[in-house]
Each structure stands twice: as structure tokens, then as C-alpha cells.
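User: C-alpha cells for this one?
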Amino acid sequence: MRKIAIINQKGGVAKTTTAVNLAAGLSRNNRKVLLIDLDPQGNIGTSILNNSDMGIYDYLFENAEFGQCIIHAGKNLDIMPSNERLTKAEFYLLKEKNPVDVFKTKFNKAASNYDYVIIDCAPSLGILNQNALIYAEEAIIPASTDPLGLDALEKMLVAVDTINDSYLHNLKISKIVPTMFDKRNKICKDSLTEMQNAHYLKVTNPVRICSKTKEAPKYKKSIFAHANNSRGAQDYKQLTIQIIQDEPQKSFGEEVVAQVIAE
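Assistant:
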């Protein structure tokens, strides 16, 4: 199982969009995926679900059963949604003896039958997100291709190192995803080049600005279900391929990667 946190301290960098479409892309390629919304804004629910009464808050703090708190959103894709009640999480976590271990304790066994657990983190480094990072083994950082995006990326990399040192953890930055890329815009091209030069082994293909990607949440769909031939769908297919190619060699098989490319 791969446990991946999608995180950036900066908001507005297509973090939820990346989490939703990566989860959808993996599920379409025979991976069983749990997508967890760890943001009190509940944008994953807005993007692909109708409202749900139960979710991550109930599972972490109300002793609800795991199965009561997930929604089957499609073949191979389960979602644990969030809502504004999660704003109380920090208060409850600080009462715990080991406040950064709560998430790990709750999910290690309950989510063990998934191939991927994807966590969409809020734009902060509060104790709830620290919980997610301690549970996760990998982090993916979406970073907008502009000067503020570059600055936020570097700060996020430092924050991950600090958390690893503080908690003797080994969270790996597996991918940096350049987002909101517009090839007509010089600052986007310059920012992408700077990102690639500094972190060339981790930077994925850029995710281009695409109106269809912005539209998809209105219809409660991933970009693949909404506009499978769009630029956004092409870019998130490529990201999915790159994530699959990082899997340990066990064999989901080369034919699966071919399936992603062909869809």
C-alpha cells in the first residue's frame, strides 16, 4: 500500500484538483483507492460527491465505524469526506497523549486493504496535517508556476525536513507537480524552468490551465469523466502514469500503464 499526502502550505495551487484526479486516474487503472479529505472546507465533497452526514471527523473523534464514514464513489474508489466540524480537530488532538499519532493509529489497519491512500491536506502545517504526514510515506506537492508558488514550494520542502527530524520520520517527497501552467506566459515558463533545475528528479509534467478542469466539480465529476480528451485529462493521465511507474515491481503489469495511455 502507498500512503500519499497531497500538501502545500499555500492555498490555490490545485491541490484538491490534483488529489481528486490522481485518485480517479489510479482507480481507473485497477488500483483500489481511498481518498481522504482533511480540509474542513470539504472541497472533495463539493467536487465529486453530494453532501454526506459522516466522514473523517466522525471516524477520528466520534468513534464511528470506518464503513459508516466512507462513500463508494466509483469502481475502486472510496472517499472519506470532510466538513466544517473538522475545525475542532486541533482542540481534540491536543488532549491526546500522543497527538501526532492519532491518524496513524486509526488508519493503519482500517485502510490496509487499499492499494493507495491519498490524503488531501488543508493549506497549513497544523497538528492535523502533521498527523497525516506522520502516517504517510510519500508527499506530493502541487506548486503553481509563479514566483509565489516557487517560494511556497521551498518552504514546504523545509517543513517536511523539519517534521522528519522532529518525529524521526522518513516522509519522502515523491513528486512536485507544477500547476496552473500557461505556456504563453513567460513567468510560468521561467518558474517551471527554475523548478525543474532545482528539483529535476522530482518534477512531473506541468498541469496546464484548462477550463474543463475548472468545470468538472460543477458536474461532480473527475476530469476524465467530464472531458476525457481535454488538456487537463491528458496532464492528469500523465501524472497517473508517473505515479504508477514508481510502484515496486510486483505486477500490476505493463499492460496497465498502456491502458492509462490509451484511455
